[in-house]
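Aim 2 progress. For FAD-binding oxidoreductase, the working sequence is reproduced below.
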Amino acid sequence: MTTSLRDALDAWRQLLGAPRVDDGDRAWARYGADTTAATRQLGGALRAASADQVPEIVRIASRFGVPVHPISTGRNWGYGSALPVNHGCVILDLGELRRIVAFDAELGVVTVEPGVTQADLAQFLAQAQHDFLVPVSGAGGTASLLANALERGYGVTPHTDHFAAVTWMEVVLADGTVHRGMLHEAGGPELASLFRWGLGMYTQGLFTQSGLGIVTQMSIALARRPESVAVCLFSLKDEALLEAAAVAIRQAMQRLHPTLGAVNLMNRHRVLSMSAPYPWDHLDAQGLIDAPTLQALGRQFQVFPWTGFATLYGTRRMVRAAQAELRQLLGGIASRLLFVTPRRADTLARLARWVPGASGRGLQRLTQSLRSSLELVAGRPNETALPLAYWRHRHPERAASPKNPAADGCGLIWYAPLVPMRADAVRRYAEMVGEVTRAHGLEPLITFTTLGDRVFDSTVPLVFDRSDPAACARAQACWHALLARGREAGFFPYRFPIQGMEPLRQLAPESCALSERIHRSLDPQGLIAPGRYR
Ligand SMILES: Cc1cc2nc3c(=O)[nH]c(=O)nc-3n(C[C@H](O)[C@H](O)[C@H](O)COP(=O)(O)OP(=O)(O)OC[C@H]3O[C@@H](n4cnc5c(N)ncnc54)[C@H](O)[C@@H]3O)c2cc1C
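Predicted structure tokens for this construct:
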């Protein structure tokens, strides 16, 4: 340990109290587990008890020249979990800052601290019977709302794009000063929390995917709970229907958004990863699910080559009208097109209990997962999506509750590229992913999610056995190969894991140079999250 690091840890102990400051070894034990199997040497870790400690924490970092890596809940699974990009950082854990600072029940804006989770907000809204939806993501109840928006994550409720719903932020800069924006400063906090563009230079975007400051508060506009929530489920029984489905989905988004929230199109592997155990005993020579087993699982769990899942929000009449339009747009392409409300999903789950035998068990799992997906769509966080992280885990039954894939030893890296909403692009993309993943001994799990009506974001979880070093190396190599092959073909991630920052620097030198100039003026010592997206 260097003298400056030792002195900085001592100064932080004086400020926060010794139990809130870890040395490098204790920090590693607490924060080191990462689903991507990355390792980073940590200088230590700090747990702030209140937001007003953050400016002094940063001043100490500056005095001793020790960089800090802020996390909110550290559940950045698939992108590095709690780990920093660079070695030697001290983790600044803001997870205990869990105040819901303000809530405007009339206009639907909540102001939260970094540690407020999806579950915290759900509980707060339910207790006071406020009719708003939590902007949920697949990461489950224990993940931070603020950090997900900072990473520009997305989810399934009407406010799919989480950063787009952010109206205001409070940010501590590297010199310990606090930035709240011009409208807040000159016009007052209420207006600032209601109008996301603020006044003068729009600065909020600078603090997302950047590490340019430490965000201690964020205001988020919430979607009101609509009169009616439903999902449209459909299947493509033939792989060749993918192109036609992509075009129909684009048309549906053009015509029906915002009643149509978003559409997810998942391949068979992806649906099975959330509903069926991994068939370890039926693998081919490459260690992947063999074709007959895939067919058999598809039959048992009633999963076709592609499954569509579209969300509908509005008045009953609006949802009914959108259903009719969807039927028309998807007719001739989709099979088993079905509209399900939360109540209908409950009934299906109850009925499935009466079906005996193996197909009954398959149906029970399927209806159960449908029921929890509906809950998620209705803005109630849960762990429906998390089992996919455990698919190639040797002992998924040992997962603790609530689930934590990093601590439980799951292997997962997200490849999450943007894909133009064109017929030929989705086909080329799906083929490319299939080829590259299989060549690296990984199953091709693909989802296309609409982000508006021009582009899909596709999420491909590279799921691997983290207890096997060779599998970890293959997954890393696969992510890099997907980045390169995808880029050649016109697909590129919207978000990067920590191992991806180096290639990003090579691919975008001019943008990284600009980012570096901005950082040099606000954070000349490189104290906050060095290496992130630059
Ligand atoms: C099965 C599964 C499903 C998932 N589904 C989704 C999904 O639907 N949508 C989605 O977006 N993600 C998803 N994820 C990915 C990830 O788990 C979530 O995005 C999660 O919300 C990120 O973790 P966090 O909220 O704890 O953020 P943190 O780990 O706390 O933060 C992430 C990063 O943001 C920055 N940061 C955090 N807090 C601050 C702060 N206060 N100030 C400055 N910078 C900060 C840091 O650089 C940090 O590394 C999923 C993961 C899994 C395994």
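The first strand starts at residue 21 and ends at 23. This observation will guide construct design in the next reporting period.
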